[in-house]
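hey m, so remember when u said the tokens were messed up on ur end? i reran from scratch. heres the input so u can diff it against urs
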Amino acid sequence: MAKIKITQVKSRIGSSKRQKATLDALGLRKLNQTVEHAATPEILGMVEKLKHLITVEEV
């Protein structure tokens, strides 16, 4: 399975509780923090919901 690198580039302040919970589920807790995940349908769905707060790169 392909891996993706996810970086939080915008603040979670002003986001809904659901978006904050999704950021936590991805492991993003600080601005400019980067995590790596496998590109599963579940992770890609989370990325789609947060595309305004994060950037995504293939590894």
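this time it looks ok to me. The two ends are 11 Å apart (CA to CA). if urs says something different then somethings off w ur setup not the seq
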